[in-house]
# Entry
Amino acid sequence: MSCIVVGFLIHATVSKAALQLFTCIDIGGTSTGGGSASTGANGGDASALDVAETRSVLMYDMDVNCDSRLSFVAKFFVGMPFFMVYSIGIPMAAGILMWRMREHLDDPIFGRRFYFLFAGFRTEAAYWESVVALRKVGIAVISVFLRPEGVDV
# Structure
């Protein structure tokens, strides 16, 4: 039982961490090269060397290039399945379990294992903790994906 309790307590935090694999920002850009008109060794304009490329990097670890193959593999073969199974699948499975077992909530064995999921709710709404967990996931999605936009959103 304690594993289920801990799993639900850390659910939103772990879901947000999984979503952070998908948040990339662009850094760098074109620079104008300072104010001096210096010449290079071959007589050309040295300001052409100051132009930086724009790179897409992971917002939470700027050493990771978002355009790399490794980043793609991490996003779609680790991040997406984890998000779908853990962040969405577990609350949905718990909600379905609570809905199907709502007649047996008074059973001592079932009640002892899952009491924290339906405590405080009416029998008809025993699944509601799962709805709350999915709403927390929604807030995590919003906070992770809108963070690069800043407070102007």
The longest strand covers residues 61-65. Helices lie at 2-9, 11-19, 69-100, 108-118, 128-146.
